[in-house]
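Quick one:
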Amino acid sequence: RITQLIEQAEALADAGADIVAFDATRRPRPASVADLIAAIHAKGKLAMADCSDIDDAREALAAGVDFIGSTLSGYAGGPVPETPDFELIAAMRELTPFVIAEGRIRTTEQASEALRRGAYCVVVGSAITRTEHATEWFRQALAETAAQLAARAAGTLAIDIGGTKIMAALVRDGRIERAQTISTARDLDPDAWIAAIAEATKPWRGQFGNLGIAVTGLVNKGIWSALNPETLRIPPNYPLVDRLRQAFGVSAFALNDAQAAAWAEYRHGAGEREDMVFLTISTGIGGGVVLNGRPLLGLAGHFGLLRGPSADRKSPFEDEVSGRWIAAQAAAAGHDADAAGVFASARGGADWAEAIVSASAQKVALLCHDIQLTFDPTRIVIGGGIGLADGFLDRVRTQLPILPPRLQPVLVAARLGVHAGVIGAADFASGSI
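Output:
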């Protein structure tokens, strides 16, 4: 306990302290909060209540304390947090302007944040007075960085699982040293795909220190789920990262494939390290957003799942634009052709094929217009088998609404092609972000 006894409070006042702080938590104590405050005030000094939560603060203020502090947040039971309790500081400020922020404030940024949260003043203790603490913080940070650099030097196994193919690559410093592509066996499950990847990359064992994987669908804390089962059927809540660790024996990081590609294009390709949105148009439609040098993860960029422009607006956008839609439209028109065949027929002058490709391009143009108004990126990077098909991007540009230059999206072709997903996944896994 801090200043448990009245004699201690009086001795601190006699020693010259202008403010005497004491333990004001609701734990058992030899002297009450009220008695400690009275003793401190009797010496003509100010009393500070070291609190663990907002209830401590309320009771201390009711007893007449002059200052309340966040000093004992995290120290009155349970595990001790790593960071300051900014929420408590802000809550205390609602009770009184005289809040002293204290406890685990280790950096200038944290001290400044405490002031922004309403602190009257800020106490920095162990970061200055206990050099063994500061030494350990630096040692730990350097050890973690050294481990990341060592893993990066050893190379990264990067995997991109898409709706039609799986690519595995050995990546070092953003460069692909080896690559292997296998078909996605859509009738099998992720366990089988991982086993196939492990077999295909067996000769690379010992040449990588970590693993990054980019996949279609949603990844949340290493758990993989399908957002549109028509693109790729995935069992609900598949433990992707755990299965990869078991199969390859290294740490693993997983994220959405389009978000991985967006980061790769931002850092190594057509994004030119400026604000950008990436749009991949292939079997389905995916996307990624990079703003202020940071990628948006989670659900951000899943443009293919927006409600489509059809009258009923029941279908996902990708079901009315992507390669599957193009092939289905060809079949409905009486032609046995996949997306590549439709594009070939359009180049050959077939009116039915030109109509399908133009309809897809028109819808993509509307999407790009909406993206520009939503994120205001410097450029929209277009990739994917359909997006990079001969003539498609030009068709999209011609379908854009006539707008003032400030509102007009700038469309550019992706540069990294099929390698974008593995390069981005490797960057995330190696800590190059």
